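Lab notebook, bench 4. The sequencing result for the construct came back, and we need a structural model before the next group meeting so we can plan mutations. Quick request posted to the team channel:

Model the 3D structure of this chain.
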Amino acid sequence: MPRGRTIAISTAVAVLVAGGAAGGAYYVLHTRGTPQETARRFADAWSRGDLAAMKAELAEQAPGFEAAYAELTKNLGATAVAVALGAVTPSGDDRATAAYTATATLKNIGEWSYDGTIDLAVKDRHWKVAWTPRAAHPELTGANHLSLRTTWPRRGAITDANGDRIDGGDVGGSVAQLVGYLDKATAKDLKSLGSAYKTGDAIGRGGLQETFQKALAGTPTTEIRSGDKTLKTIKGVTGRDLATSLDLRVQRAAADAVRGVEKPTSLVAVRPSSGEILAVVNNMGGFNRALDGRYPPGSTFKTVTAAALLAEGLTPSARVTCPKTVTVGGLKIRNSDHEAFGGLSFLDSYAHSCNTTFAPLAASKLGAQKLYDVASGLGFNQPLTIGVHATKASMPKATSDAELAAESFGQARITASPLVMATVAAAVADGTWRPPTLVPSIKQKVAPKALPDGATEHLRSMMRAVVSKGTARAAGLPSGTAGKTGTAEFGTGEKLESHAWFMGYRGDVAFAIVVEGGGGGGKVAAPVAAAFLKALG
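Done. Here's the predicted structure in token form:
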């Protein structure tokens, strides 16, 4: 008996020893997943910016977790972080280290790549991330921070079409309004500009300086730092110069022409063959009427209506009537100064600006849709992409014959700026409407559109007649000028005020002028055009 008992006890001890020796293997064999899988999920979640999914992989709560990754996103302005997982190296049965390469895209700066490691450990039989701040970057301890030190390069110049700078203090007020100015960045600006900027850095404010801030500023030479230690230096790029289409000779002539006018006056000149803006002037500061004015175009719009009527087969020599008054759709219409010309040619009715000719013709031969379509092909209802803010012209489709009649001579709900009306004149000069631009390098949203078949030559002869024998004959316009006057009523009441318009072209310069509340286009705006064109020679 004693001997048998001894054997039983020995056997039990042997079993226990065997179990203890195999404990590590048993533990490993019953651990869920692999360190590679955990590291992969963690790295993928980091690349997605999914902090919640990253925290789900942690072995235990980690104070400072969000703050560590904010070192990249907030302090350095990283808009994205791509994490490429490398080798996963075990260290014992329940420990491993995963290597990675992180590539951070830093706003205004570029890409920065660095190598790091992620520690892993078995917790409750699952592989987890044994997180410390150095998992976000090897230099982070939880007590230090990453930061940027930036040095900005030379800012790009803004030039006219000839390469001369226009962003200095020696340009006129209208040019300065287009260019904008340099200002000190505020804390509010930094939210949109990114971490490469600091409060007080020079930034563009208004005009081209603001629109093209990124290109003009370039990218700074940037030191990525941990405390006083420089981790990486990213070399900057000098700002790019910005060429505009402005011609200072044309700009000066335009500015001289409007300077002496007592009422607010704006002039825009464009090159018909390209749509490039040559001059933009306002004789009064503040609101940029030349680009953002919303004026009824008055009888300058008859050029659009005439284009539509010519497309329908009407010819300049066709006989029409210009009575003192007509009624269309219940709307009583008269001509300026209550004029009447009886029977005459379509060309002469345009030259004398007969509302009582155009209104009934629009109702009988066009209809709302046709006039709307032709207007849209001549710049109305089209987005403007010129490089600075500009308000598009609006021509709603008429909902009644009365509204269509009023639209035919540029009233009702139609509004336009001098910029858009200059492009209408340019379209006649060239035969194709082209979207205007102040910065030729930018891509346009709207394609050029040819005038209706057969309309171009007829419109040119009609616009020449305005100058030779029509409403602009006494304005002193130089030989070779073609144009159209406009007297656009606005406001309410029995006696309405009028804006004075004149648009036209001479050679490869087209233009439009509005004198706010100026009265008759032929008497007020056309002489401004004469002074402008004579100065050009």
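Residues 1-27 have pLDDT under 50 and may be disordered.
Will bring this to the meeting.
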